[in-house]
Design brief:
With 51 residues, the protein is mainly alpha-helical.
Amino acid sequence: MKMVRLLIQVPVPLKARLDALRQEGTTASGFIRHLLGQHFRQAPAMGRKGR
């Protein structure tokens, strides 16, 4: 799968938490990809109201 870059800005406290994850061996990119994957796998079941 081809990857593209995404530049985001986060508040300093959130960046500090991402840095703490990095110390445990998890990259910010990997963590964000994981969260986005979870979100989009759940999306159809969560938000759609029937017509």
